[in-house]
Amino acid sequence: MKNQFFKRFISTVKIRVKGRNIERFLHRLVHEHIDLLEVKNIRYNEVLIWVKKSDLERIYEIKTIYEVTEEDQYGRIRVQNHLYRNRILIGCIMIGICTLYFLSHVMFQIEVVHNDRALREMLLSELKEVGVAPKHLRKNYDQLQKIKKDILEKHKMELEWLEIEVVGTKYIVRVEERKMNDKEEEIPIRNVVSKKHATIKKIIAYQGDVVKELNSYVKPGDVIISGDIKLNEESKNKTGADGEVYGEVWYETQVSLPYEIHEKHATGKRKTVYSFKFLNHRFEFFNFEPFKQVERKETILLGHPFLPISLVKEEQREVIRKDIVYTEEEALNEAIKIARKKIEDGLSEKEYIISQKNLKVDMRNSKIVVDVFFSVYENITDYSDIPKEEEHPKEE
Question: What is the pTM of this model?
Fold first, then answer.
C-alpha cells in the first residue's frame, strides 16, 4: 500500500524481466541499491517489477543476459508524457481560455439612457476621457464610483443623479437631469372645443362658460367651454378657458385574420455567446447548453476585410415557434379580440368601450375579414385661440 501511494508522486516505470534464475538478478539489483518498489511473479523465468525512472538506465547497464522491457510509466513522468502528446490541444484550450477571459473584461458597448441627445453626447465625451468607452478594459466598482462622483461635481448644475451599471460587456449609464423651477405657464385666451364628432357625456369646467349641454352632438371645432365671458349677450371679458370634455365617439375598424398562423414567442431566456465564424460555419465557445430555437443579434469583434473569418459576440434569445389553425368560429372570435385591442390600445385609463357590433363578416378560403363598429367613451378636449379684437378709439 505504501509503495502504491509512493508511485503516484514520483516517476516510476513497470518493466518485464525474462531469463534464467530471476532471483539472482533481483538480488543484484538490491545490491546495486536499486529500490524495488513492487515485484510480481509471472512464471518461473518471468517477473514484473516497479522501479524509479532514474534507476532504469542503470538496470539496462547490468542486465547482461536478461531481457528487460519497459511496459508502462506512472507518476510525474506519465503526466509529463500526456502533456507532451496533447501539447497542441492544451495550447489551443489555454489560448481560448485566455482569449475568453480577456474578452470578458473588455467593454464593447456603452449606452446612456436619456431622451436628450446633447446630454447623451456630453456624458459619452466625459466618460471617454476617463477610459469608460468601447474596446477599453472594464473599470472596477471603486473606479466607477469615483468617475461618477467627479462627473456629478463637474456638472452639478446640469445633473441631478448618475449611475453607471456593468451588464456583461456593456456599460449602461442612467442619468437624471437637474430641472430648474419654471414659472407657471399662463393660459392663453382660448376656447375649449371638440376635436371629434361626438355626443357630449361629461363636462368638467375649470375656467370659462359652458355653452353646450350634455348629450348634445358636436363636430370638430365646436365651442364647448367659451373663454368669451358674456352678460346679457354682451362680451364683458376674455379669459383662457380650461377644462375636460368626454363624449361618445364612433369607430369602424376592419381586421383580416388567416386561418393558419405561425407564431414565434420569446421565452425570456437570454445569454451572450462568443463564436468563431469561417465561411458559412459557426463554432461557439463554451456554450454547453445551447437553445433549441434561437434568435441571434451579432456584433463583430474581430474581422478581416478580405478573408471570410471573424470573431463574433452574439446576443442570443430563446424562442418557441408555434403553429395555430383556427376553425371559422375561433377565427371570428380572435378577429373581434384583435379589433377590440386595436381600439383599447389608444385609450387612457378614464376612457373605455361602451359597445361594439359586427357590421360585416366575410369568410374566405384562407382568411376571415371582419368589420366591427365601436362606440367609445373618450376625451374629446381640444383648444382654439380667441383672436384679439382691434381697439377702437373712443368718441369725443
Answer: 0.44
